[in-house]
Amino acid sequence: MAETIAAQQAAAQAPSEADIEALLDELNVSSESNLISVLQDVQARFGYLPAPALEEISRRTKIRLSRVYGVVSFYAQFYTEPHGRHMIRCCRGTACYVRGGQRVIDAVKAELGVEEEQTTQDMMFTLQTVACLGACALGPLMVVDSTYHGNMDPRKALRVLQMYQEDSG
Amino acid sequence: MSRIDSLQELDVRRQRLSQRKENALRTITLCGGTGCIALGLPQVYTAFEHEIQQRSIGDKIRLKRTGCHGFCEQGPVVVVLPERFFYPGVQVDDVPAIIEQTALQGKVIDDLCYTDPVSGCKVAYEHDVPFYNLQERLVFRHNGELDPTDLDDYIVRDGYRALAKALCEMSPEEVIEQVKLSELRGRGGAGFPTGLKWELCRQSPGDDKYLICNADEGDPGAFMDRSLLEGSPHAIIEGILVAAYAIGARKGIIYVRAEYPLAVRNVNITLQQAREAGLLGANILGSQFSFDISVHEGAGAFVCGEETALVASLEGMRGMPRPRPPFPTQSGYKGKPTNINNVETFANIPLIILNGQQWYRAIGTKGNRGTKIFALAGKVRNTGLVEVPMGTTLRQIIFDIGGGIPGDHEFKAAQMGGPSGGCVPAQYLDLPIDYDSLKEIGAIMGSGGLIVMDEATCMVDVARFFTDFVQEESCGKCTPCRVGTRRMLEILTAITRGEGRLADIDRLEQLGEMIKQTSLCGLGQTAPNPVLSTIRYFRPEYEAHIHDDKCPAGVCQELITYRIDPEVCTGCHLCVRNCPQNAIAGEPKQPHEIITDRCVKCGICHDVCKFGAVVIE
Ligand SMILES: Cc1cc2nc3c(=O)[nH]c(=O)nc-3n(C[C@H](O)[C@H](O)[C@H](O)COP(=O)(O)O)c2cc1C
Ligand code: FES
After folding, report:
1. How far apart are CA B481 and CA B474, in angstroms?
2. Domains along chain A?
C-alpha cells in the first residue's frame, strides 16, 4: 500500500522532461562526466533520481543504462523514489547499537508502520538507517532532516516524532 | 587575503599576528563540532551573541567557535579564556551568568562546573579535567583552540611552517627519509609504514601522480577523522601538501563521507583560503611546486574505504575492490601512481617535519611511534575522542580517562577495530595496546574505534550484529565474502533465537577461517574477526544460547520475556501510560501485568519503571 501511494505521489512530483534536460544542460553532462557526481547533483535538485533522468544521463554519458542502475543501486545514498517531507535517519552503528539503538529503530518502525527505506502513506516521513553518523558519543542517534537528536531511547524518539507531527498539524 | 610568497613572508605574517594585541578582556570559546551542535550549541551561541550585544560589551568579550574538543558527551562545551574556565553541558539559561560572573568578573560558577565522576570533585579549569589532562594531545593540539575556518588562527600556531620547511630546506628525498625514520604507520587501519609507501610512489615511473586523502571513515563508532577535518582542516591540508611535494604528485583528492556535512563545508572553506593565500595552486609559497586539491563526496558504501574500491568509486563506478598487486602506488586513480593515506596519518606529518623524527620517535613504543586517537563510545562515562601515546593500556583509556562504566555495571569487553576487529576481554585491560599487540589477541587497531561493552551486552548478538553489517556491505564480487558471511549470519541468527546446535560453534570457526583466507579484499579477510574473537573469549555465552536457550545478558529477544514483579510494583501506572502497544494491564495502586501477546519487547516499561519492578527473564 505504502508503495502504491508513493508511486502516485512520485507521478505528481516528478520533474518534467524539460526540467531534466535543463538540469543536465546546466551540469554539462557528457561522456567526460563523472557518473557519481552527476547522480549526486541530479538528486540534490530533485530529491531523488527519476527514471527518465537516469535514461537521459545514460544517453549523454554513453554509459549503458544497466550500468547506471548498477551504480545507483550500489550506493546507499541514491534513491529512485521521492521521499517523505521529513527524512528520519536512525543510526545502526556499533556505538549506538550497544546503547540500545536497535530498540529505537524498532520503536520508530512500529510507530510509523514502515520498514527501513520506506515512506509513510501520508508522505510525512521516510525512514532510513545509516551505518554511522559520526556522533557516536551521543548514541543512540537519530537525525531528522538535518537536526541531530542524541541519547535517544524509544520513548524520547517517539516524542521527537510527535513534535514533527504536531508541527505540520 | 594577500598571497604569501616565501618562507620569509610566512614568518613575517606569523610574527605580526603573534604581536597582535588582545584587546578583549576575555574570550568565550564554544565547541563547534557535530556533537556539540547536536546537543544545542547553535542556540547557546546565539544567546551569547545576543547577551553581548544587549550589554554592548563586544569590545571586552570576544566570542569564538572552535573545532571539536573531543569531550562530546559533555556538550555543548564552553571554555572561557585566558583562565580556561570549563563549563560542560551549557544551556541557554546559563548564558547571562557566564557573561556576568565569569567573562566580566573572572569568577568561577560552581554550579556550572564539571564534576569528575571518579572522585566526585568539582573541577573549574579545563586543564584539570582528568579526561583531558591524562591525554597527550599532539595531533589534536589545536582542535579546541582555533577557529577552523580562520587561516591566520592556524598560521599564528606555526601553521604551514612544516610545509615551508619542507619546500625551502629539504629535498623530497629528505622529507621521505624523515617520515621513514619517524616510523609513522598509517592510521587508516593496516598500519603500513607511511614513509615506505611514499617512497614506492615516488619511485613509480611517470610524472602524473595522484594523492588521495581517505576520509571515508566507514568504521561505525569511529569519528576522529570527522573531528580532525571539522576542527583542524588546515593541518590536514598542510600534511597533504608535504606528502605531495615528497612524492611528486600534481593533484590531490579528499574523499569524504557524505554523512559529514560540516567536515565537507569546513574543508571547502579552508581550501579556498589556502588557494587565495598562495598555499595551494601554482607556485606554492613562491616555489616551483604546484599542487591543487579537490573534494569528492562519497555516496554511502562502507567498502569504499578500501583503497582500490575508493579509486573505482572516484572514477564514477561501483566501489568494488580489485586484487592487489598492482598496488595503487603503481597503478591507482586513472591508472596512474596514487598514494592513499588516512586523515589522521596526514595530521601527523606537520609534527614530524617541524619537530624532527627524533622528537617523534620518543613517543610511543618500538615499531609503534607517536600517538593514536581513539573514539571512546558505548557503555563508558566519558565518551569522546582520546589521544594517547601508542602503548597506553585499555585500563588507562577506559577507566582513568573514560571514567569507567556508568551505573554499577561491570566492564565486559572492548570492541576494537570495528567490523574488522575483535572483542578484547577484561583479562587484557593492562596490555599496552599498539598495532602488533592487538593483532596477537585477535583484535586490530583499525581506525581506533573503541566501543565499551558491559554485562548487559550479549556477545553472540554483537557477533551477529557485525556479521549482519559486513554481509550487507559486502560488495558481492567474491564468493567467500558474499556467500560465506551470509552463511555465518544464518547460523548466528539461529543461535540468538535459541535454534542453534552445538556443532554450530565449530562450523562458525571453520567458515571464518575459510573466509579469512580466500576473500579478495580486506573486508572479507577480516569479516569473521568479531565472530572468532567472541567465540575465543566468550564461548560459554554461545553455549548458554545453544544448550539452555538462555541469553545471559538479557538481550536476544526470542530468548527473553518481560515480567512485572508484583512484589515490587507499586501500581504507579507509569509503564501503562508509556507502553506504545497498550500491552500492560492493571488498576492504579494495584500491581500491573504485561499482556504477553501484545508485548513487542521494546523495553520502554523497563526504562521508565522507577522501582525496578520490570524484570527481564
Ligand atoms: C573494508 C575496508 C574499509 C576501509 N575503510 C577505511 C576508511 O574508512 N578510512 C581509511 O583511512 N582507511 C580505510 N581502509 C584502509 C585503506 O584501504 C587504506 O589502507 C588506507 O586508507 C591507507 O592509509 P594509511 O596508510 O594512512 O593508513 C579500509 C580498508 C578496508 C579493507
Ligand atoms: S555509531 Fe551511531 S553515530 Fe556512530
Report:
1. 7
2. 2-74 (no CATH), 86-168 (3.40.30.10)
